[in-house]
Design goal:
single chain; 272 residues; alpha+beta; 7 strands; 54% helix; extended
Length: 272
């Protein structure tokens, strides 16, 4: 908590909070004259506000971390489908704040609708346009939190390759939502966090479960027939619909102007 406060205080000072300490330093350096007494009181007030702001930020960060840890320990890993995305006309650090309408479903919980407000930074746009997010849900209260790292994995923003020594093969499940969600749930149930590389050799139970999911997903993919012409045409329509939806998201998040939106929409429609 102390280190969190120190970081918060440094951030507050860098954002303009140095004025208070500077006023105090000038007041004492000039001999504490009556003419400069106003600088003492103003500097004292600003410094006090700085300290209170840093304490507030530190407390908020500690509470947020505690909520995340509680959800990791007792929450359910679920899939949230974005059914709506609207502007809030608010920007934070030049990034738009958007409102999401979500349908959340996961093992052991009844599907439910929810809303959340998130900052739509450039790194999050692919996940928002894909309309799929991973969330941690408290099954008792239905309070939830978006997990952006796991969301990036199921949306194909991070590679998902699995090396199985027994098969002498590496399987690529990148972007395959269902098996990846199942694997993420297995890892969470075994207390294994998600990082760039997970080694399951020391956990034979989790290793066997993950391997079964990987082989099953690879088998389904290999057995899937080549799509006929009608299916290919349907895939093209889905692709067009997805492009239009992505364009709507870019406009809603303020990434493009209305004029750019109109021009690009006409181009997509003209390609049909």
């Amino acid at each position: 908590m102390v280190w969190r406060y120190v970081k918060a205080q440094a951030w507050v000072l860098l954002c303009g909070g140095l004025v208070g300490p500077i006023f105090l330093a000038v007041y004492f350096a000039t001999g504490q004259s009556e003419l400069m007494k106003w600088m003492f009181w103003v500097g004292l007030l600003i410094t006090a506000v700085d300290v209170l702001a840093a304490l507030g930020l530190a407390a908020y960060g500690a509470n947020a971390q505690a909520r995340t840890e509680a959800l990791e320990a007792g929450g359910v890993l679920a899939l949230a489908t974005i059914t709506g995305l609207t502007e809030t006309n608010t920007r934070i650090n030049d990034r738009p704040l958007v409102r999401l309408q979500l349908n959340i479903a996961g093992p052991g919980i009844a599907p439910f609708a929810a809303e959340d407000q998130v900052i739509a930074g450039v790194e999050r746009l692919p996940m928002l346009t894909a309309r799929r997010l991973v969330v941690l849900v408290d099954p008792a209260t239905r309070k939830f939190q978006i997990d952006w790292n796991r969301s990036g994995l199921i949306n194909g923003l991070m590679p998902a390759t699995f090396s199985v020594a027994e098969d002498n093969r590496t399987y690529d499940l990148s972007g395959q939502v269902e098996p990846l969600m199942e694997i993420l749930q297995i890892l969470k149930a075994n207390g294994i966090g998600m990082n760039s590389m997970v080694d399951l050799r020391d956990n034979p139970v989790a290793r066997a479960q993950v391997q079964a999911v990987v082989r099953r997903a690879a088998g389904r993919r290999a057995a899937a027939p080549e799509p006929p012409a009608a299916a290919a045409q349907a895939a093209t329509s889905v692709s067009t619909a997805q492009r239009l939806q992505e364009l709507e998201t870019l406009r809603a998040t303020g990434a493009i102007t209305d004029q750019e939106y109109t021009v690009k929409r006409q181009q997509i429609i003209a390609e049909l």
